[in-house]
Amino acid sequence: MRSSRVALNLLAGLLLVAGVGTTAYQAFFLGLPLSPSSDGELWTVEARIEFQAIAGRPILARLLIPTPRGSFSDLGESFVSRNYGVSIESGGRNREVVWSTRRAGGEQALYYRLVLGRRIGVAPDSLPPPDPVDPPELDGAEEVATRTLLDEIRSQSANIQTFTAETIHRLNDRDDESARVLSGRTPSASAIARAAVTVLRSARIPTDLVHALPLRNATRVEPEILVATHNGEQWSYYEPTTGRRIDPDDAFVWWEGDVEVLDVEGGKRPKVAFSVQAKPVAALALAGEIGQRRASPWMEYSLFSLPLQTQQLYQVLFVIPVGVAIIVLLRVFVGIETFGTFMPALIALAFRETKLLSGVILFGLLLLIGMAIRAALDHLKLLLVSRLSVMLTFVVLSMAGISVVSHRLGIESGLSVALFPMVILAMTIERMSITWEERGGGRAFLVAAGSLFAAALAHLAMSSPLVTHVVVTFPGTLLVLIALLLLAGSYRGYRLNELTRFRALAGRR
Prior knowledge:
alpha+beta, 3 domains, five-stranded antiparallel sheet, 18 helices
């Protein structure tokens, strides 16, 4: 007993020292910030190229890549590929990266990553000044339709900005015959944008098509096609379906012109997916400097070196131990009873999307429905495996029913019920039913309330930006957490709820 206690304390001490040491190294030597707050704006943009290699043929993959201009600055770009040669070509209006290899087989994945910052005090003009505009050569119906639109738009506009907006509005009017000739009867955003370029260039307005990437934190971002016009001083950007003017600070121009962003020779079914992630300025700026000047192996093998989609997955996974630790502390030191340890943690994870109040209501509603179904199944005397399978199916049907009814009533928060882990729900209902039979309904609802309370507290910690930043940026803090959990696991003293339980004995002394 004594030897196990010594071993436990020694292990906890080693984990504590390792966790504190690595965190201190990252914070004070590498300079990574302890707070998620940041004075600047910084994004990591990643393009993932996938295709199926054709056996026996050399591969040449070309991807158009941006040239940050104006208020955007390039803080470093990198190319991730195995057994491929990489070169950058700068001819024409766009830069492009070319991956090449003599032979490859199976599914291929290539990555281009750009760390993008914003320059302070610089105008957000993303494109260079335009060349002189020559009207496009048109004939037949297109020429007549363009002239008709131009005559009508000129009388309803005062400058290039209003001329552009009016042009786009007219091209979106399906009752206008000239608009249907130029953009089609059921046009897409790209078709309207191309028609707008034709009309505006016919009016000798410098116009171009650009493809911009919205700078928002997401694992998958679709480039938006925009109409760009120049008024003699700066470029302006417009959505082709609404005519709304876009702030250049809200979108980053990836490539220009009516061309495809990806071309693969020697491969089939090529596709490209973009992802964007905001990062702390100080952390990434210094990480980039360390990678170039010091070649720090710590940063090379950190989470920041993983693809963006994987990083964002670990941002969720790394906060789960924090929620579990809170539930363990509540059970060990406070004495709150819950249905297991991981059930409240997973429910807390679902609360990140459903929001706390609506999540508690939806979870309570599912428990009530499940208890009613479980009581009905109890009369059939089923085996445990069959009963759980039936319960799981009914839980899925109940979740779907709640989603449909809430949608019809206009309560959109009810749609998020699908985020609850259905297997955990089925097991919780089973555990609650057994508790009801063995210890009574009051005790069952008390344990359910304790589970919801623990899940709510865990949710508050797991959804905190500070907690997420600390555990992801400093993984050593999880070693500290393990050490504390080991010490908590050896606690054999009184719990807080036992102070009232043994109050009568204390009074007899």
